[in-house]
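Subject: two folds for Thursday's group meeting

Dear M.,

Sorry for the delay on this. The cluster queue was jammed most of the week, so I only got both jobs back this morning. I'm pasting them in the order they finished. Each block is the input sequence followed by the predicted structure tokens. Could you check whether the formatting survives your parser before we put anything on slides? The first protein is the one we discussed after the seminar.
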Amino acid sequence: MRPSAFNLAAVGLGLAFLYAPIAILILYSFNDGRLVTVWSGFSLRWYRALLHDRQMLEAVWTTLRVGVLSASFATLLGTFAAVALVRAGRFRGRTGLAGMVYATLVMPEVILGLSLLLLFVAVGVARGFWTVALAHTTLTLAYATVVVQARLSSFDRSLEEAAQDLGAPPWRAFLTVTLPNIAPAVAAAWMLAFTLSLDDLVIASFTSGPGATTLPMRLYSQVRLGVNPEINAISTLLIGLVATAVIGAYVVQQRRRA
């Protein structure tokens, strides 16, 4: 059955609402003029300027390092937490563990950032790169746990039990049987944690220090003084990076299914 004109219009308006701002941002990243609302001709001027903006490049590098470290820590800890919540049964403290893990899902980022700031001040930790990484780990841990827990809940444990019947200890059965089967969920948890870290502004603002300015903090400070066309260029590069990662993951998934 062919879709009706109303359905086509609804889909078109929805896509335009979602992607028109992104398309405009990408288009004006190639604008030659300094005014971001007036087209002055095609140019790579702002991409070349971006390559010489040391502060912006340092912010990008800091953001990527924080994202990789925090996503890795959150995924590792989230996998352990998911295993405990799914496999350990009704142990004492399970409700408290689940509550503490999931608290960041509903807690406002302002409160979480302020509480982490007070914690770092109380223990005498100088704010910088590692405090931001730890804060982002705290932020993304719950999301990683939810993703891995959902996959573990539907995993057929008879496969792991069969490996144990053949002589494999529990830890080896988990590593050789369970982990490869839940690897897509673990990878999805890592990507989600990395994306959340890449996007965070509030918590990084509370927990960062000298030499630990992330890209969202840098962009926000520049936007307050006026939109610099370099912002369009760096945003376009990030959009391209994310789009490439998503398309690559989709292609890999389709090849595995084939």
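Second protein, same layout:
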Amino acid sequence: MSTRESVSAAACGALLLCRAVPESVAAVAPLLGERMTLAAAGDEWSVLVPEGGPWRHGGEPVDRVVTGWAAALAVGAPWPVLALWWDADRAGYALASGFRRPVGYVWLGPGTPAGEDEAMRAFAARLGLDPVLDVQALDRLTRPDPEADARARLRGVLAVLTRAGVALPDGLDPGAPADRLREAAGAAPGAARTAAADRRPTADESRLAAWMPWVAGPGARALALAQVVAGLPLTAWGLRRHSGGWTAAGSLLVAHGALGTVYGLARRRP
């Protein structure tokens, strides 16, 4: 990696906000294949801070990786995942929820808006934000402001989310160096590292069972099969594109469908 690439990689960072308690997130985070620090970020929110990432070694762009991670965590889960990311030239977010296409917004380094207003409104609607006050505050982030750079715009998004219950631990500031983010996350009350990447939750774990509330329902096997069918080509596409994020999304679909099938069959046994 050249000196310029090293500097660019060092300027990258990301935070993953999950609208779920840490216990629920801890059950599925290992499927991403990346060690992360997990901490509470409000009464109903958790934050994942990556310890590394393909972007740190001249790999994929940080936005592509974390969007794939957000999609992987949100697939089939009853809670959305918001990825905040930044690099040397831009900053932005991506919101994933269920099987729906992620929505996101990007600002260039000086804070120049480079997204679509519709995406910001979809973001507010999916999170159930106030359709008047919160949407107005988000709309202001899509207008030119010479005094707000791209990372200040992310802080503006977080300010809006405080009304939705988000409360990041001290020191988790968009744009901070990765080492500082990890240190701040580790110092948060109750913080823990996610399980090893090679560990897979089993269908008998109560936390995973709670994360899959439909496994005992009549449509469980059909849904599980659909997840496997959708996940296999997505995994293959991610591997062809050398996309760690989308490979993780496909792998999670396959694993989730397979575990749902196993759990459903186990529940049917006399």
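Two things I noticed about the second structure. Strands lie at 13-18, 36-40, 46-50, 81-86, 90-96, 103-108, 192-193. The chain has ten helices and seven strands.

Cheers,
T.
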